[in-house]
Structure to design on (277 residues):
């Protein structure tokens, strides 16, 4: 059984626990499919005030996450788990998607992963144009984004064929940014999309949720990861209905009551993904 451990390094563990201790993510932990550890970055802070940030060299607004607390926190995890991979949620990372979730869940074969990374590298080139405005907003350069793509590609090749146990350290940055040297211990820079959040906690939740639901013994029956792999993770869903048949005049399409499975499959294919909302 595959098992993934997530260590979340954050200043706000109390913001994460309530969500992760509910529903499917609770069950996944209860069943031993995933394990989640919380590490409070404040515990690694400097001086009597346990400071974790400071002003930028060269001037400018805001405070940056310092290297020392971040390295100390990550090294404390890596001492016991040297192969743990560090994820940094950041608006200038690679945009998270279902293919990456499958890769992190250890579902795709290395060949599939390599193909995905190759196509990512191509699309990353295109995406860079789109990211440009955003990066400038954040004062970062194009070359930094291609480094991120390269790190992902290299790391994908390093991954073992059969991932029985993987360990991800998710470092949640806060405040206005981080010292660039922190990137030297980061394996994956992940963004949720083209907008800026106050911290990495929401990304940590999204990454953990989307990876965990792909693992065996988390969801049941028809929603298993095996079924998803059939649809290559792109099963943008078709419209679905349950009882009642007629809700305030809105009726369920008759074909779904026909019992004609071929016709239903065709209808669902025709109504999948792009034709919605
Ligand atoms: Cl992962 N972090 C932050 N702070 N902002 C974001 C993001 C991540 N993804 C999009 N915007």
């Amino acid at each position: 059984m595959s098992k993934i451990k997530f260590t979340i390094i954050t200043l706000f563990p109390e913001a994460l626990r309530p969500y992760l201790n509910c529903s499917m993510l609770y069950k996944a932990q209860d069943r031993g499919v995933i394990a989640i550890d919380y590490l409070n970055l404040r515990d690694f802070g400097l001086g009597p005030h346990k400071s974790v940030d400071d002003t930028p060299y060269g001037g400018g607004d805001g405070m940056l996450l310092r290297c020392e607390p971040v390295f100390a926190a990550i090294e404390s995890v890596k001492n016991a788990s040297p192969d743990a991979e560090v994820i940094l949620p950041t608006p200038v990372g690679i945009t998270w998607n279902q293919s990456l979730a499958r890769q992190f869940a250890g579902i795709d074969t290395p060949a599939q992963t390599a193909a995905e990374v190759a196509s990512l590298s191509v699309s990353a080139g295109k995406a860079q144009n789109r990211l440009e405005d955003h990066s400038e907003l954040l004062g970062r350069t194009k070359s930094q984004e291609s480094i991120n793509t390269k790190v992902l590609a290299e790391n994908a090749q390093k991954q073992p064929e059969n991932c029985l146990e993987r360990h991800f350290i998710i470092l949640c940055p806060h405040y206005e940014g981080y010292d660039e040297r922190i990137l030297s211990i980061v394996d994956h820079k992940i963004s949720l999309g083209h907008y800026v959040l106050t911290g990495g906690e929401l990304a940590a939740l999204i990454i953990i949720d989307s990876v965990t639901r792909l693992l065996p013994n988390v969801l049941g029956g028809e929603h298993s990861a095996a079924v998803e792999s059939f649809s290559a993770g792109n099963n943008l869903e078709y419209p679905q209905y349950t009882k009642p048949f007629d809700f305030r005049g809105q009726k369920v399409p008759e074909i779904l009551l026909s019992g004609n499975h071929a016709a239903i499959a065709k209808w669902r294919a025709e109504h999948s993904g792009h034709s919605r909302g």
About this structure: The beta strands are 3-10, 34-40, 53-54, 64-65, 85-95, 165-171, 188-191, 246-247, 250-251. The longest helix spans residues 110-138. The chain has one domain: 4-121+161-238.
